[in-house]
Amino acid sequence: MADPSPLATARAQLATAIEILGYDDGMHAMLATPRREMHVAVPLRRDDGHVEIRHGYRVQHNISRGPGKGGLRYAANVDLDEVRALAMWMTWKCAVVELPYGGAKGGVALDPSRYSPGELERITRRYTSEIMPMIGPERDIMAPDVGTNEQTMAWVMDTYSVNRGYTIPAVTTGKPLSVGGSLGRATATSRGVVHMAAATLADAGVDLREVSAAVQGFGKVGSHLARFLAEAGTRVVAVSDEHGGVMAPDGLDVPAVLAHVQHTGTVVGFPGGEPIDNTALLGLDVDLLVPAAVEGVLDEETAANVKARWVVEAANGPTTTAGDRVLAERGVVVVPDILANAGGVVVSYFEWVQANEAYWWTEPEIEERLAQRMHRSYATVAQYARAEGVSLRDAALVIGVRRVAEAHRTRGLYP
Ligand code: GLU
């Protein structure tokens, strides 16, 4: 049985792309191996005065096309291998949507729900100062990911800036507007996913208004996504978070679910629906399934129960290699993470460009440029998939991997 770890999945995906492209072992090794990695011990003084050590990581998987780019994750089970996988996916993602970036990722092994805001600020600042030599607006640019948010990015930016002696907004993206964030960034990943869902449905002559959907994950990505789908006329029949889910076959009142979450912190107990667990949600009889939480949820077993015709991956790495094979056998169209959820890093790029120019765009400009880039990237991937008879995942990987390999070849191997 295949190892369902994120790194095993990421490596297997790369191996498939290398095989299609016919690259030699040397190029395979160059593309598979993270360029730089840092493991730091992060001491934290808790509110009660005692000191504990958390483990932090930053991995620059590839920096051949530009600075490293990628989020910072706070979760209890974060380890170096997971960060390596997430960094590798960032490399292909940035290349697929033609951003002048490499791929990077960071993580700190802690469950943020168990720490006070003051503790989170202290650990963020200490982690930032530990990895200072690696990051910077021309080196490696951070953004939010699971367990972090725009406040985290403000602390990272402030810590970096104070140590350099002047304000450097472009060291992070996904910041609050008040410190150089971009309009549209907070909802960009979700908007991008909806663009990708609309594009893949359109290929089958179907409109978002005609379909039902289930969304797993109700955080920064899933909650906006459910709202945008409902606004587009999709019947959103189920949503869930880490505590459980709710479902209503006639469609949930998504704004009411959002209000419930604001009140209680979870979708669980929403009065306008029946309880459903996270695994059952994946097997619901819906048209569109959107995993928007964490890695590895669609494995050999859960994939065998998927009834949706389309899976649009809002999370990073939600499908294992075995899960992917099962979905393909069942004729499910999968829009892969590195394309489907790239809207976040696209608007991160816009934020970085705006910060570098110190000139801010309007929201319609940002939404328009995001939509254009997502649709153009989809068209390129879908056309390759059709022409070569491969899945959208393999097409996106081949396009991303090829662009990175081209940068390696053109730059040459030093010395
Ligand atoms: N964490 C997001 C991702 O996985 C955003 C990364 C970024 O904007 O740099 O794509």
Task: Characterise the protein shown here.
- The protein has 2 domains: 34-171, 3-Layer(aba) Sandwich (Rossmann fold), CATH 3.40.50.10860; 188-340, NAD(P)-binding Rossmann-like Domain (Rossmann fold).
- A hairpin with a 2-residue loop joins strand 7 and strand 8 (244-247).
- It contains 15 helices and 12 strands.
- With 415 residues, it is of the alpha/beta class.
- The chain starts with 5 loop residues before the first helix and ends with a helix.
- The longest helix has 26 residues, at 363-388.
- Helix 1 packs parallel to helix 3 (80-96), helix 6 crosses helix 14 and helix 14 crosses helix 15 (392-411).
- The strands form 2 sheets. The chain has a 7-stranded mixed sheet, sandwiched between helices. Strands 1-2-4-3-5 form a 5-stranded mixed sheet.
- The chain is globular and about 55 Å long.
- The model has no long low-confidence stretch (mean pLDDT 97).
- Bound molecules: glutamic acid.
- Indicate the CATH topology of the largest domain: Rossmann fold
Number of distinct beta strands: 12
CATH homologous superfamily designation of the largest domain: NAD(P)-binding Rossmann-like Domain
Percentage of residues in strands: 15-25%
Largest sheet: 7 strands, mixed
Unreliably modeled segments: none
Bound ligand species: glutamic acid
What's the CATH class of the largest domain, please?
Alpha Beta
End-to-end gap: 42 Å
Number of helices: 15
Number of structurally distinct domains:
2
Architecture of the largest domain, CATH level 2? Answer: 3-Layer(aba) Sandwich
The geometry reads as globular
